[in-house]
Amino acid sequence: MSQYRIVGQSVKKLDAVDKVLGKAQFAADIHFDGMLYAKVFRSNVPHGILRSLDVSKAEAMPGVVVILTGKDVPGSNSTGMIVKDEPVLVKDNGKIRKIGDPLALVAAETEVLAEKALELIEADIELLPPVFDPVAAMTDSSPKLYADGNILAVRKIRKGDTGVVFRQCAVVVEQEYRTQMVEHGYIEPEAGVAKLDGDVVNIWVSTQNTHFDAKEVARNLEVGLDKVRVIQAATGGGFGGKLDISVQVHLGLLAMKTRRPVKLVYSRTESIINSSKRHPCTIKMKTGTDNNGKLLAMECTIIGDTGAYASYGPGTLTRTAVHATGPYEIPHVTIDAHTVYTNNPTAGAMRGFGVPQVAFAHETQMDILAEKLGISPLEIRLLNALRPGAVTATGAELKQSVGIVPTLEKTEAAAKPIINSQCTHVTSQKKRGVGMASMWYGIGNTGLPNPSGAYVNLLDDGTALILTGCADIGQGSDTTLAQIVAEEFGIDMADIRVVSADTGITPDAGASSASRQTYISGNAVRLATQEAKKVLIEMAAVMLGVAPGDVVVGHKELCVRADSDQSQFLADCLSECRLDLGLSPKGKGQSVSLVDCIAQCRIKGKLTLGHGWFNPDTTGLDPETGQGIPYATYAFATQIAEVDVDTESGEIEVIRIVAAHDVGQAINPINIEGQIEGGCTMGLGYALTEEIQVSEGKILTKNLATYLMPTALDIPEMYPLIVEEPEQTGPFGAKGVGEPTLIPTAAAIANAVYNAIGVRFTELPITPEKVLARLHERQNA
Amino acid sequence: MCKWGVALSRKSISFTLNGEKTEIEVEPTLLLVDMLRNRLGLTGTKIGCGEGDCGACTVLLDGKTVNSCLILAMQVEGHEVLTVEGLGTYDKLHPLQSAFIAEGAVQCGFCTPGMLLSAKSLLDENPQPTRQQIAKHISGNLCRCTGYAKIINAIEKVANS
């Protein structure tokens, strides 16, 4: 039972009614009269120099309104999340670094005509030798994508002395792991519409960060940021893939050029080819313990293929490095994480942001170590789990809200009665197994400022308007933020309207990424509410004749605190003040209604308007040692998976997943369960079926018939469990949950597969072909 | 002019759309989903892939689910089409719509219209499906947000009510 009135309640999502009625307006649903349709002409080679483009035939085609090429970009002609290395349109004699690089834009009267015009554009491209293997790309003899070479970043973490300590370890496990490239797979492909309004370019778009988008558009259009308004349309999922620029700048350019509304909607294949992907990683990990299983040392080298452009690559690999120990205290750590350019598709942010890859490695290591030590997977985790006072690999001391142990205990307790209890159908052909995996995840950007701002306006009738830049991409942030404000003001959900992610109206709240919005924007809206509330409380104190410190907010009223020592002197003052305010000398005594209090504020010329911003307390990481405080708080989780492995077909069926997540304080439990179930399902795909197959830089799995995401028939019984270890700096104690839900799933499934058939997989996905090959290998050995 | 540059004659078709007689002139190459979204302004039906893989464009044709991206507008001549716009209204939500909201089955909402129509066709032909039957029936509708559990819960809730 929550100690709060609205925080902790599974209130309905604010956008759910529009969405079930089909009324929610996604970008592709927007229509304007006189609207043009855009298409992008793209490179079909992975590496080259664009010598020239012949657009004359396409330009001459009836119905084609304009064709833009690199020379038509007035501004910087570059975008990028961290490094501005992606061309908006490759210029003549400019470099092509991947299949899909944009070379020209077409705007035509219909979508069909725009598509037809693409076929008439001819590109003269001088081919350059490509590089697709990140290890080869790191060598001096490799073809170079950039003048500075292909190694974009190396994140080092150094703590203690692993060289010496490994010699003292009783048990050491060393293993190489490989994880595959995967696709976000949001069901809505990228889409947007642009329309000029005077000298302002309005862009409605499917996005996770309108304020970033606006900056990229302004820089490339060479107009002031005040002349660009990016408005988030209803967004059909993001998972990190809608952080990068897709249609935004192209739309801005075409709207400016034609002065007509323009729409650009990606096809599914265009989306798969051009959106960023999860980094494929090679991870070499060496982990050592003492005789009892206490972790002493870890060495880890990670190579992440970020493809042709940086996107969020260096941030992702930094996070991979910081999280490589898992949620365990290890006194001696050496980690190197390399972000490497190749001519493969670009990899960037995807739910988990580099941590699912390394969780697969550290959680497999834990199980191998436990087996060698003769202790259980639970025992080795409990023995090493982070606890308050523990020091992480970056030298940060965790002081509070360290919920890994409770997630281990809760998962184990919940799993015991249900797991392995219904094995009747298991035959000699089908083997059942159980596996466990844990994770930790820092909330917010790694060692970087990432503030969020908000305005809250308490209106005359006691309803409130929240203005926040936070993009709700389906995860429910509008609802979560409204709950925080409703709780703080003592009003109902029906009394709140949230206006979010519109750069013309709302303050910057940063990206809906890094599981940061509940914690960071939650704090921002709470601070804004508190600023407005201060005015109310001061007025209520006058009206009630008590000190402001003795006023508390109740449900649509302000009350004298139960334990206040309201003196006769104050009671006398009360009568006097009330007379001054034109009220009868006898007040209600113990409370004043919210609307009366607001009315009194207005009479006195006071607005109940607040602003707030919050930036998590972090420090940068030292470039040589990685030491620092990367995050203000962490989420923790443990999942247990139960699988059946068919030894004839090689198929793996996941039967159950029990998942306990420490969220600090649940703001909306049903939405958190939805995150957990959705994350576990995405993690199941990562473990078993999903892989973006790339050959010579070309994506082979370019539609949803060949890229296999879980369907309703593939899901296990899921048991989402919420653990609440309140975070002192969080809004009502809340942290975050979106990304953690997927992080341990693949590792738990891989450990369960080992438990079932005794085969250890160190490469994802674990396909039936791989299972059969390994079983045959063992049979023949 | 159609996609292949060959002029094909437009034809007037008549069908029942969300309970109302509708007449519209269409060209032979026009897809049902494009007619609904672009000609009739019914944008509740979504396009997630355009290839019949994701189910976001699911509508009911004579009560059966079809991917509206895979059939031509002309094929609905004389038939009944139900889209999400015909399922319920702000004042009177369909029980499935209410259940989807209450059970937390809606996240980004892009798969939701198609998912609701698949659910309706199932309950119309089998009012008491098992969870396995529900899962099988909606297995052509991809959802990337929810992990399907709460969608199945919502459909089961309506079946049991």
Automatic annotation (TrEMBL), chain A:
In terms of SUPFAM superfamilies, this protein maps to: CO dehydrogenase molybdoprotein N-domain-like (SSF54665), Molybdenum cofactor-binding domain (SSF56003)
Q: Which InterPro entries match?
A: Ald_Oxase/Xan_DH_a/b, Ald_Oxase/Xan_DH_a/b_sf, Ald_Oxase/xanthine_DH-like, AldOxase/xan_DH_MoCoBD1, AldOxase/xan_DH_MoCoBD2, AldOxase/xan_DH_Mopterin-bd_sf
Q: Which GO terms describe its molecular function?
A: iron ion binding; oxidoreductase activity
Q: Where is the Aldehyde oxidase/xanthine dehydrogenase a/b hammerhead domain?
A: 21-129
User: Per its UniProt record, what PANTHER family does this chain match?
Assistant: XANTHINE DEHYDROGENASE (PTHR11908), XANTHINE DEHYDROGENASE SUBUNIT D-RELATED (PTHR11908:SF157)
Report what the protein is called.
CO or xanthine dehydrogenase, Mo-binding subunit
Name the species this protein comes from.
Sporomusa malonica
Automatic annotation (TrEMBL), chain B:
**Keywords linked to the UniProt accession:** 2Fe-2S, Iron, Iron-sulfur, Metal-binding, Oxidoreductase
Q: Does the keyword Oxidoreductase apply?
A: yes
Q: Which domain of life is it from?
A: Bacteria
Q: 2Fe-2S ferredoxin-type domain: from which residue to which, for each copy?
A: 11-87
Q: Do the record's keywords include Iron?
A: yes
Pathway involvement of the protein, from the record: Alkaloid degradation; nicotine degradation
GO molecular function term, any single one: oxidoreductase activity
A Pfam match: Fer2_2
Q: Which InterPro entries match?
A: 2Fe-2S-bd (IPR002888), 2Fe-2S-bd_dom_sf (IPR036884), 2Fe-2S_ferredoxin-like_sf (IPR036010), 2Fe-2S_ferredoxin-type (IPR001041), 2Fe2S_fd_BS (IPR006058), Beta-grasp_dom_sf (IPR012675), Diverse_Oxidoreductases (IPR051452)
Instruction: Write the protein's name.
Output: Purine hydroxylase delta subunit apoprotein
